[in-house]
Design brief:
The structure is a homodimer of 211-residue chains.
Chain A: H1 8-26, E1 31-32, H2 34-41, H3 45-53, E2 65-66, H4 67-77, E3 84-89, H5 94-100, E4 110-117, E5 124-125, E6 129-133, H6 137-144, E7 148-151, H7 155-167, E8 172-175, E9 188-191, H8 194-208
Parallel strand pairs in A: 3-4, 3-7, 4-6, 7-8, 8-9
Antiparallel strand pairs in A: 1-2, 5-6
Helix pairs in contact in A: 1-4, 2-3
The structure holds a DNA duplex (22 and 22 nucleotides).
DNA sequence: GACTGTGAAGCCATTCACAGCT
DNA sequence: AGCTGTGAATGGCTTCACAGTC
């Protein structure tokens, strides 16, 4: 059967599968069934199978999936065979600084190669690098072949900073500010919005414990 | 018309509307149409109207929506009329520390009332509080009426910590670790998974720039 | 004329159910 | 027997299109 692009929802789950497969590999598990994956991740087994067919027909009927093959296919699908290079803007702030020091990037095939801010220029984050001025962004993006810019700047300046990022030629942005960024170019934007998640929790609490 | 509970997707957008309405209020805008909201937030106007009817029939045909009334209704729907109290576990870490210092909580009707860790007990986060040992969680949750626990602990211990959190009687958890938490009680869990967002970006980059 | 509220239609994602391998 | 791959059925969300109101 010919497979189209996997839908957005499947892509999100691919990340989740990838982590679980890494976990299984670390426990030396060689083979896994869709039902086992579904149980571990609280999903439907049919959905797991349907998602995995976007990778090709990797399973063996009556047996299951080969963990390593599956993992490698997901890494390939997600474009993680080569390490993705990240630049963090707002690295002098608390959140930016925390991300710069996040130890999990290596394991996930990402690498922080640049730190930007308008303050604390020259300050070093051990094992990562030195904070550089955001005005250098065009040059540094090109030189270090940055794939993704992570925006950790206050909400009131994020649109302005985002405009500079667009001009730098970067094609993907991860935005931590709780605001919809307006873009005029073809640039991919994903948002991490913990405020919204907190408000969702607040709503759910309300249904248990209404006024 | 009788309205049921708004669907999950609408709740997520309520957060987004709330922020936009706050923004409009700060610019002294009194009245807004569904089309204006839709343009600003990159949504469909019919969807905005449908979402807003979950709040009741607040609009005026031919005119639009009263910004303040709309805002108050969303705050009520999301259960944010009373401030929601937050406890942060892993407050001695980089991410937990950054969240403890996040200045946006006030504006969003959340308040950090407890900081937990197993290290750096007694250390102070200015204007927030002192880091206390996680073994105190049951007592502190009850005393300070904590609504939501934010988990900023390393992936390899998060399930273990989550088990303690469940026993503490808290009813909502925001988890920053990239793993599916297994729960045995009725507890609401939302996840913030920036690793997954990064992998989504990596996938999108791949379609521009395939191997 | 402008804009809301909403049934109906359309679209996407999930789940079912079973044929097809091993 | 056990498990995958997948068409068909279902369910949920989004968008259309227009009647209803100011």
């Amino acid at each position: 059967m010919i497979h189209n692009q996997p839908p957005q929802a499947s892509i999100k789950r691919m990340s989740v599968y990838l982590r679980h497969l890494n976990h299984l590999l670390s426990k030396n598990v060689k083979c896994v069934s869709s039902a086992e994956i579904a149980t571990a991740l609280d999903l439907n087994a049919a959905q797991v199978r349907k998602d995995l067919t976007y990778l090709g027909e990797l399973g063996t009927r009556g047996v299951g999936y080969h963990v390593k093959k599956l993992r490698d296919s997901i890494i390939k699908l997600l474009g993680l065979k080569t390490i993705r290079k990240i630049g963090i803007i707002g690295a002098a702030g608390h959140l930016g600084g925390a991300l710069a020091r996040y130890p999990g990037f290596d394991k996930h095939n990402f690498k922080v190669v640049a730190l930007f801010d308008t303050q604390n220029i020259g300050q070093e984050v051990p094992n990562v690098g030195i904070i550089e001025h955001i005005d250098q962004i065009n040059k540094i993006v090109a030189e270090r072949e940055i794939d993704i810019i992570v925006l950790c700047v206050p909400t009131n300046v994020v649109q302005e900073v985002f405009n500079k990022v667009q001009d730098s030629g970067v094609k993907a942005v991860l935005n931590f500010a709780p605001i919809k960024l307006i873009s005029n170019k073809d640039i991919h934007v994903q948002n991490v919005d913990f405020t919204s998640e907190l408000e969702t929790l607040s709503f759910k609490l309300r249904t248990i414990n209404p006024e």
